[in-house]
Amino acid sequence: MLGAVNLSPSQKIERDRFMPKPTSKDRGGLMSPAHFVPLTDIMQSYQGAVHNYMRDCEAHNVVVTMPIRVEIADKGMQKFFVAVAVTMQFDSPEPLSDEARRQTPKGHQTVFAWVPADLYETADFGIYIDDIEIGENLKNGLVGEVIDKASIEDAVIALSKDKD
């Protein structure tokens, strides 16, 4: 597993009180860890498809990360750490958002988005993006870049078929 960091909700550490407890949608009664994987690893080792990573590593919850520098008019060069979570077992994005902030390199702003793939084709499905004061176009563009490059839309569709 290239550059992945596992975050397991079942670990007995301080962040547990913020993490979701296993629910009926969990497979095998235990929650799978969330793998934090750089977009570059998805692109180079998994043909640019997060679903390939998820299948090969038996990962039900993945956060694709991308550090990036962007030139912004009147503000100069800005650094961001974009993290897009694709989950099948989390009821809430908070533990993943918290971990993304912990992993954000110094001097970067965190842009976190959550795609609850298990809710695909339900009224509750959507892409949830943390509030950050950088402008909607920039925020949506950064998240969209990760969604596009990691083929997250294709992964969500494939995962919805896998759960049936």
Task: Name a few traits of the molecule.
globular, 164 residues, alpha/beta, 26% strand, single chain, disordered N terminus, 6-stranded mixed beta sheet
Describe what this molecule looks like in 3D.
The protein is globular and about 45 Å long. The protein has one domain (5-162). With 164 residues, it is of the alpha/beta class. A 6-stranded mixed beta sheet has the order 1-2-3-4-5-6, with helices on both faces. It starts with a strand and ends with a helix. The protein has 5 helices and 6 strands.
Q: Topology of this structure?
A:
Elements: E1 5-7, E2 34-38, H1 39-45, H2 50-56, E3 61-72, E4 76-87, H3 94-103, E5 109-116, E6 128-129, H4 136-149, H5 152-162
Parallel strand pairs: 2-3, 4-5
Antiparallel strand pairs: 1-2, 3-4, 5-6
Distance between the termini: 27 Å
How would you write the strand order of the largest sheet?
1-2-3-4-5-6
Helix content: 25-40%
| Average pLDDT for all residues | 83
Q: Could you describe the largest sheet, including whether it forms a barrel?
A: 6 strands, mixed
Fraction in beta strands:
25-35%
Total count of strands? 6
- Indicate the structural class: alpha/beta
The low-confidence runs, each spanning 5 or more residues with pLDDT under 50, are 1-29
In DSSP terms (H or I, runs of 4 or more residues), the helix count works out at: 5
Integer-rounded radius of gyration: 15 Å
Give the domain tally.
1
